[in-house]
Amino acid sequence: MSTINDIEIVNRVLEGDRDAFAEIIKKYQNMVFRYVYYQCGNYDEAMDITQDIFITVLEALDSFRQESKFSTWLYSIMVNHCKNYKKKNSRFSMVPLKITRGEDEVDIQLHDTRENPEAKIITEDSLKIIKEEIEKLPDDFREILTLRDIEGLSYNEISDILGINLSNVKVRIHRGREYLKNRLHARGLV
Amino acid sequence: MTSKHLTTEQLSDFIDEILSEEEKIFVLEHIKSCEICRCELYALQRCISLLSQLHNECFEFPDLCEKTLSIRKARHRRKMYIKSIPAIAASMMIIATATAVKSGFDPQNRAYVQTLSAQNDVQSIINAIRDSKGRIVNITSNYIDGEIDHRYLETIKSFMESQKIKHEIIQMEYAIQGNSGRLTNTSLSGSNYNEKLVQLYRNKDRDKIMIRFFK
């Protein structure tokens, strides 16, 4: 259903209704921003890249053949955009996962919907550690674990987005998970 | 139970529920009796669970729609402007060329006349004599003799040199012969004395110089 909606919106945009694209931005901005943020670790930078990704998507919309889901196509652009940005900016993965507001740096706020305060404290501590460990992951592992375990995309979608076969997707996921598990184990989290 | 522990691949695929039914039963049976693999499975599940928690993270950001679309519009305008630069440049070149050609064909335009003259030695010589307030005395198939005012001598010499036109001054020093008032070329004497030439200079003032320009 959501795919049908996406295609309807895409068709509206292609027919000249550029403002209809706002609906696509609203729908995917969280996902795109989250992915970019976990790849670069800097709020402001992630914001700029997210905007660039949506602009690229809008400008490339003519080339969307509707052979795959719109979201898959958008995520491919997102992944490639991040990779290209990473190549151009060597500091891309070196910035800590913090929001920069002027001279101040603050942790990203997590809105936990659970009621239990104890669980919340554990979660916040654990999440702080896992964010630090994500930052230290090799690019390939961070990329694939973000898509699979944070965004919950299927193996097939990941295969389409990254342009690699299913076996490679599996291998990367296994290795990435094992790498991260060992890191978290060393920090007493698992 | 087999003594061999489960691999991370097996555990990972078990969590993702992509194992076949047979493989799934095998893993379940194994972890029931193997504490090490059970712990590994829990650790991996915990790891994935923590990652999936990040999906719920909410970020505060400004209205991305308006901002993105306005940036896109601005970039589009700039792109269009950049795209139009070659067209503008081409138009300007066409206008400049047209203006140059038009002014070049203007008979009053001295520069263009000089350019044309440079292509034609005879025309160059004639123009040079004319511009030096001089006159043409004699034209043969090999040379042109021109009489010019002595004030233009240096100018015409340098012009001829620049045009690589061979030339020489025919030394004429005049003397008025007694009461006859005839002009005599004192540099020529004896059989070289050319009465006809001297006749040409009769009644002329002494500031004139004759130059022979070779074609």
Count of distinct structural domains of chain A:
2
Specify Rg of chain A, calculated over alpha carbons.
18 Å
Instruction: Fill in the CATH topology of the largest domain in chain A.
Output: Rna Polymerase Sigma Factor, Chain: A
Number of domains of chain B: 3
What is the element layout, followed by pairings?
The complex is a heterodimer of chains A (190) and B (215).
Chain A: H1 2-14, H2 21-40, H3 43-60, H4 70-88, E1 99-101, E2 104-106, H5 117-136, H6 139-150, H7 155-162, H8 166-186
Antiparallel strand pairs in A: 1-2
Helix pairs in contact in A: 2-3, 2-4, 3-4, 4-7, 6-8, 7-8
Chain B: H1 8-15, H2 21-33, H3 35-53, H4 64-104, H5 110-118, H6 121-131, E1 135-139, E2 143-149, H7 153-162, E3 167-170, E4 174-177, E5 182-185, H8 195-200, E6 208-214
Antiparallel strand pairs in B: 1-2, 2-6, 3-6, 4-5
Q: What does the model show?
A:
The complex is a heterodimer of chains A (190) and B (215). By secondary structure, chain A is mainly α. Chain A has two domains: 1-109, RNA polymerase sigma factor, region 2, helix turn helix motif (Rna Polymerase Sigma Factor, Chain: A, Orthogonal Bundle), CATH 1.10.1740.10; 110-190, Arc Repressor Mutant, subunit A (Orthogonal Bundle), CATH 1.10.10. Chain A is built from eight helices and two strands, in the order H-H-H-H-E-E-H-H-H-H. Chain A has a two-stranded antiparallel ribbon. Helices cover 54% and strands 14% of the residues of chain B. In chain B, the strands form two sheets. Chain B has a four-stranded antiparallel sheet, with helices on one face. In chain B, strands 4-5 form a two-stranded antiparallel ribbon. Mean pLDDT of chain B is 77; it is low at 173-179 and 186-193. In chain B, a hairpin with a 3-residue loop joins strand 1 and strand 2. Chain B has three domains: 8-56, no CATH class; 63-105; 119-214, no CATH class. Chain B has helices spanning 8-15, 21-33, 35-53, 64-104, 110-118, 121-131, 153-162, 195-200, and strands at residues 135-139, 143-149, 167-170, 174-177, 182-185, 208-214. Classes of the chains: A mainly alpha (190), B alpha+beta (215). The A-B interface holds A 18-19, 21-22, 25-26, 29-30, 33-34, 37-38, 43, 47, 50-51, 54-55, 58-59, 108-113, 123, 126-127, 130-131, 134, 145, 149-152, 155, 170, 173-174, 177-178, 180-181, 184-185, 189-190 and B 8-9, 12-13, 16, 18, 42-44, 46-48, 50-61, 64-69, 71-72, 75.
